[in-house]
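INFO  loader      accepted 1 record
INFO  loader      residues=530
INFO  predictor   begin
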Amino acid sequence: MERWLIVAALGLSGCVAVAPVVAPAPAPEAVAAEEPAPGAESERPAQVAVAVAPDTARRAAAIADSARDEEMLDQLHEVAAALPDGADEADLTALFDINVARYTQHDRVQFYLDFFQGQARERMTVWLSRLPVYEPMIRAALTAKGLPSDLVYLALIESGYSNTAVSRSKAVGMWQFMRGTAGDYGLRVTNWIDERRDPIKATSAAANYLADLTARFGGSHYLAAAAYNGGGGRVSRGLRMLGAGATQNYFDGAEAEEELAADLTGDDRFFHLSDSRYLHRETKNYVPKLIAAAMIAKQPEKYGFPSIPSVEPYAVDSIPVTEPTSLEVIAKAGDLPIETVTSLNRRYVRGMTPPGEVHWVRVPVGTAVSVTEALAAVPSEERVPAFGHTVGRRETMRSVARRYGISIAELVAFNGGLKSNSKLAAGSMLRIPGRARAAEAERSEPVGRAGSGRVHRVARGETLGSIARRYRVSVTQLLRWNDIGLSTPLAIGQRIRLGASAPARSAGKVTAAKVHVVRRGETLSAVARR
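INFO  predictor   done
INFO  writer      dumping C-alpha cells
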C-alpha cells in the first residue's frame, strides 16, 4: 500500500492512499463490547441486558470535551462586539498573507482578542493544540487554489478543528458545511456516510468554496469569508444596497477620500459593509474573529498561550473493505486502538462500512498491509458485532425479528432464556445479530432525500412534479433515471427510480432546453421555482 503525505496528495483523498496519522489521536468513542444476555424469569416479561463497554469513562470524557467545544463555539457565535471603529496600522505585513496588519487595532478585533484570552481561554488552548495536526494539510489545499494559506484559521473559529462539531443550524464538521452546500461541492451525506466529517475531503471542498467566493467578490478574502459565514447572496445584496457612492469611512475620516474610494474594492469594503445594517450581527463580527484568532495562533506566547506543540501532521494509509464491516472489528483485527480507527473514520456515521460497494477505511501510516491481511481472515458473519435493541411499547418477538430481517429462531438463539412466544417488557434490551444492522439501516434511510438505487411507488394523484418535490430532485432527473418522457402517464404502484444507478435516458427523448426571459422584479429563486 502506497503511502502519501497529505501535503502532497490532497487530491487523492477518496482513493487508495490518502495522506495524513493523527499524532495524538482524538479522544475515543468506545464501541460497546457485547456479552451473552442472561435468561429471563418464566413468570415475568423478558429482561435481557447488554454488557457495558469497559472504557465508558474514556468515552464520557470525549463526549464532555466535545460538549465544551460546542458550548464555547455557541458563545463565540453569539457574543456581540457592537463597538465603534478606529485603528492604527500595525507592522505585521510580513507575518501574514491575509490583510491582518491594517486591522489589528480595530475595536471589534480587540474585542475578540480579549474574548479569546479571557472567557474562551481554556477552549482556545485546546483548539490551538489541534492546529498543528491539520495545518499542513489545510495550508496545502488553500495554496493549491491560489488562496492565502492563513485562511487556515477560518476552521479555528468555525469548529476549533473538530471533525464532529455540529452547530445549532445543523452545519457539520471542521468546515461546518450545511447539507446543501456540501452536496454542491461533492461531499456525500447519506444515512451511512457524512463526508463533512472527513478532514481531507471537507478541506478540499472548503478550499473550492472559498476560491469561488473570492472570485465572486473581486478577490476580497474578507468578503469571501463573510459570504462563507452568511451566504454569498446576502453579502451581494448588502454591497448593492450599500452602493458604490458611500462615503462613510470606517477609519472615522482618518484616511483620505481618494484612498477610501480605492480601498472600497478590497478588504476595506467588508468593514464598510459591517458598519451598515445590511449584514447579520454574526457575519459583521466574523472577519474580526478571524483576524483575532490569526493573531493569537501566529504568536500564542505574546498573548499568554502555550507555544504550539510540535506533532506529526495528519497522515493515513487506506485499506479497501468490500463488505459491511465494523470499525471495531477492523481495529481488533489490526491490533489497533479502537479510538484511533474511529477517529480516522468519522465519516462512517454508523461505525461500519456500508453495503454495496468497496469503501476505503483509513488506518495509521505503515499498518495498511498488516491490517488488510488480518481482516481478510475475518469471516463475513463476524464482521459486524451483535448490537442492542431497546424494546418499545407493544413490540413482540415477531415484530422485532421482522424489523431486522431475521427469524424468530435467530432472535431466540442470540438471547438466552427467551422463547419464541416470550412477552417482551418495554425498555428491556435484546441482542441483535450484527448482519441485521445493514438491513435495518437501509430501511431507515430518510424519505426526504433521493439516493442511489432507491425506488418510489406511485400513489393515487401523484405526478412527476410532486414526486420530484418530495425527494428534492428535478423532473429532468426523474426522466433520465427512469428512461421515460415528460408526457408518459404514471400508473398507481409504478416504480420510480430515485438515484443515479438508474439507466440513463436515451438521447432521443431528452427534452429540448427552454429559454426564459427575465421580467421586472424576478429573482433566480423565482425563476427556479417556476
